[in-house]
Write a structure and sequence with these properties.
This protein is an alpha+beta fold. The chain has a domain of 156 residues: Histidine kinase-like ATPase, C-terminal domain (Heat Shock Protein 90). 56% of the residues lie in helices and 17% in strands. The chain is built from eleven helices and 13 strands. β10 and β11 form a beta hairpin. The N terminus is likely disordered.
Length: 483
């Protein structure tokens, strides 16, 4: 049998209204929020703690009050027995009357051997109450006179039998204990209400404050993903964990932007500065290929090899700078005697300086200068400074006189290289430590413009500072390293 034509019945999911879907979606999003989960967690934890505290206090207080009631009943029984043995029934009844008139009076009830009441401050008792003569007090319902009327109450009582057969009931009303329990119940309800209110306030605070800061992080991340590396997290100045996180992330973002800028700068410099030697290398190789003279081709190939070695040295220097800036080179850290290191550099480069007609010397040191760091990197930085001074420190064609000088103060040790050459214009001193920077006066000299960039990277790696000072004539480049 074929099904009837017409629209199929809607499923429950299809019949749900958009408003219901919106409420459900909002509730689902709220349940996934950390602020909501933390608020619920705090509410549950504090509620359980409050319940435990209230139950513990109530139980201990009720136990203390019960102990006090037992002690008071035992004290009244002992007192009445002593009065009876000392002065007989009449004296006991007088004492009982005095005790019954006190503001904190207990329950007293005396019957004769036939069960007829003789004295007491209780209006009515069940017949079985006097028959129970256990030593331990027990609860009992009774009727008491209050303001001229009978009121049903609950008491804790104990019955004793005198040697003449009379029975004496002594007890304490339990209304005070019940009132205390009512106070505890009211306090517990108030605590629950306060916990709900505080939980809601906590949720509002967390949802408004925490989620606002998280939204700021999300917005900044979106800017970074879009390629805008200038985005930074706001710092409110409160010094809380979000501010500390923002400061740390901002430092990381600044470092990333710096590294990305360095990569872009290096890429542009490589494309600009290495295009000429690569073109020259290609032309020489092509000339050697087309030259029928074997001797000329051999000479051209030697020039190609020299040019290739220069390019390899340039890329080696770039790789070294990248390693240093990445911090990977600061693994072999040890104490370094800068005086001994400078003497080794002088011994190595003094013949080079003398061959060029100049001098290289270490200014006399009178103490030991020690820093912590990578000895090979600091030695390479010092060698680069000396080599740079010997190359570019010529003035009026005269070979430079280069000196190495070491000094220290309470926090740093300064290793300086000085020459008596033409120096560097003040406008160019900040950029001579950038990659591939070649001043106009040194364009025709050999080099790649990476020596001082490596020096700056090594100094930054060792948390130091680099400074340039004009000696007029001459130039002094200083590496200030922490002691």
């Amino acid at each position: 049998m074929n099904p009837p034509l017409g629209p199929s019945p809607a499923t429950p999911a299809e019949t749900a209204t958009p408003a219901a879907d919106g409420i459900g979606a909002r509730l689902l999003r709220l349940s996934r929020m950390t602020a909501v989960r933390l608020s619920l967690l705090y509410f549950v934890v504090f509620t359980l703690f409050s319940v435990f505290l209230v139950v513990l206090v109530s139980h201990d207080a009720a136990r203390i009050m019960s102990d006090q009631l037992h002690e008071a009943i035992d004290a009244d029984v002992t007192n009445l027995e002593e009065q009876y043995h000392a002065g007989g029934l009449m004296r006991m009844l007088v004492t009982l009357d005095e005790l019954g008139r006190r503001p904190d009076a207990g329950l007293f009830y005396v019957v004769d051997t036939a069960g007829n009441p003789i004295a007491g401050n209780v209006a009515e008792l069940p017949p079985a109450a006097i028959a129970d003569t256990d030593d331990a007090p027990h609860p009992l319902d009774y009727v008491r006179f209050e303001n001229g009327r009978e009121v049903g109450r609950l008491a804790l009582v104990r019955t004793i039998v005198l040697d003449n057969g009379f029975r004496v009931l002594v007890g304490r009303d339990l209304g005070e204990r019940d009132r205390f329990r009512a106070v505890v119940r009211r306090a517990f309800r108030a605590i629950v209400v306060m916990m709900i209110l505080l939980g809601g306030a906590t949720w509002l605070f967390l949802s408004r404050r925490v989620m606002r800061r998280i939204d700021q992080v999300s917005a900044t991340s979106s800017r970074l993903v879009a390629g805008d590396l200038s985005g930074r997290l706001p710092v409110t100045g409160s010094g809380d964990e979000f501010d500390r996180l923002a400061v740390s992330l901002n430092s990381m973002l600044a470092r990333i932007a710096e590294l990305m800028g360095g990569v872009k700068s290096v890429s542009d410099a490589i494309a600009h500065d290495l295009k000429t030697p690569l073109t020259r290398l290609r032309n020489r190789a092509e000339a050697a290929l087309n030259d029928p003279d074997p001797a000329a081709a051999h000479t051209a190939l030697e020039a190609v090899i020299d040019e290739s070695n220069a390019l390899i040295r340039t890329f080696d220097a770039l790789l070294m700078i990248s390693r240093v800036e990445a911090g990977a080179a600061l693994s072999n850290v040890a104490e370094i005697d800068l005086e001994a290191l400078a003497e080794e550099v002088v011994d190595l480069y003094e013949p080079v300086a003398e061959e060029a007609g100049g001098t290289l010397e270490l200014v006399e040191c009178y103490q030991k200068y020690v820093v912590k760091g990578n000895r090979e990197l600091i030695a390479q930085a010092l060698v680069n400074l000396v080599d740079n001074a010997l190359k570019y420190g010529r003035r009026d064609g005269a070979a430079p006189d280069v000196k190495i000088w070491i000094e220290q103060n309470a926090e740093t040790v300064t290793l300086s290289v000085m020459d008596d050459g033409p120096g560097v214009p003040e406008a160019d001193r900040a950029r001579i430590f950038e990659r591939f920077t070649r001043l106009e006066a040194s364009r025709n000299a050999p080099g790649s413009g990476l020596g001082l960039a490596l020096v700056a990277a090594v100094v930054r790696l060792h948390k130091g500072e680099i400074a340039v000072e004009d000696l007029a004539p001459g130039l002094m480049v200083s590496m200030r390293l922490p002691k």
